[in-house]
Design goal:
559 residues, alpha/beta, Rossmann fold, Formyltetrahydrofolate synthetase, domain 3, twelve-stranded mixed beta sheet, three-stranded mixed beta sheet, 19 helices
Length: 559
Amino acid sequence: MAEFKSDIEIARAAKKKPIMEIGAKLGIPSEHLLPYGHDKAKVSADFIRSIQGNKNGKLILVTAINPTPAGEGKTTTTVGLGDGLNRIGKKAIVCIREASLGPNFGMKGGAAGGGYAQIVPMDDMNLHFTGDFHAITTAHNLLSALIDNHIYWGNDLGIDTRRVTWRRVMDMNDRALRQIVCSLGGVANGYPREAGFDITVASEVMAILCLARDLKDLQKRLGDIIVAYRRDKSPIYARDLKADGAMSVLLKDAMQPNLVQTLENNPAFVHGGPFANIAHGCNSVMATTTALKLADYVVTEAGFGADLGAEKFFDIKCRKAGLKPAAAVIVATIRAMKMNGGVKKEDLGPENVEAVKRGAPNLGRHIENVRQFGVPAIVAINHFHSDTEAEIQALKDYVASMGEEAIVCRHWAEGSKGTEELAKKVAALAESDASQFAPLYPDEMPLFEKINTIVKRIYRGSEAIADKNVRDQLHQWEQAGYGNLPVCMAKTQYSFSTDPNLRGAPTGHVVPVREVRLSAGAGFVVAICGEIMTMPGLPSRPSSEKVFLNEEGLIEGLS
């Protein structure tokens, strides 16, 4: 039974097909696949250009309720639905993000799905994969080096060393590097200044790579990065340092989507992985738009719950890339409903129908929110063996009272067989052309009003509040021509409020905006609400402690 096998054991037993066969399924000639071993490859830019005249398939978003320690299984459901659509005779591609090494060795684990709904090669995907993250790290840190080098050689641009905003990055959780002093050691090493490291997925270069349409757009966006300010507070751009060309060269191959396969040998693009808090938390526009030209259905996901992930997918990614989602799937679990209903993690085992009913309004809020974008939705109940029939029925009844349908999915244990019903319902929903997608707010709305709109309509808060210096900064950016950018909310993923312990569906709370940041290259303004870590730390017992090579030289402990 699936319950007795770990994810990596299941992945290792997979009967993978050569990646050229997977490409052939999609009509990609072998000469347009750059193989990385036998089971993964990049799709060439020339081929992507050649298919732009193709008709677009239907785009399906998989989102979820607010994450809980009980687990929701959004990626697992994304993969399971993709397999399910192929099972019922549809041509479908899965598009998800790449995994970050930091969380993989920290607390979160990998990002390839789970059980019998996984993308393989699971171990490669969760480790170095095709080197995209290393390329992004290198391009980012080249820009960091060029800033300090420019200051060292006379500082012709007049950079105020107190106002260098560009930090360094690495793809690992390391709290000791959050705040550092660099250039110590005397004249030969430059001017000492405060600096710090973020994790690679928080880099604006990552967000840019995932939003860029092609290499030309990539270089323009890289050049638009603001790295520092002068004493008069005028901005210094990456193009001022002549960094954009070399950075584009480093990212040339990383821009090409990665083709892999599911356990059931169905195609999947795994490409990019921006932070779901400080950035938009979606896979690359290149991967999604390419998949839409190659398949009838493209199943993708967005980070965290619908209040953060789906909102950013709709308001940032779809707005900027001209995407029109046909349907959405909202993932929920009975266990998570019970946690939202006040049950502690250690007490989730016994049946508790009343707790399910108490927690269900969290799901209801997400259903309402997806509706606000004009996208029809269906609920996927990701099944756990501890779920009881009474608990499942209680949640189904609640969803029905909201005017929607909930489908029990058993893809973790059964693969595509467990999502056959969901796949049929999603396909019918997508083909009904019921979607009337529109972003939540217009481009021309003032920046703080955009923030307030999200707070009131998505979080159900009473208002957003901010100090005068935050409002003044937003006004200055509007005056400088950045007022038409979307806003990217950075707050806790665990609640509709800024209090991670306030579960359920709170209303009337105030959302304080502590700080705002301009990601001019990526093309959005970040509103930071509460403490958001851009360099995570490791837990007391990191996941890395369980990772090792066994006597056969095979990896153990990845999850």
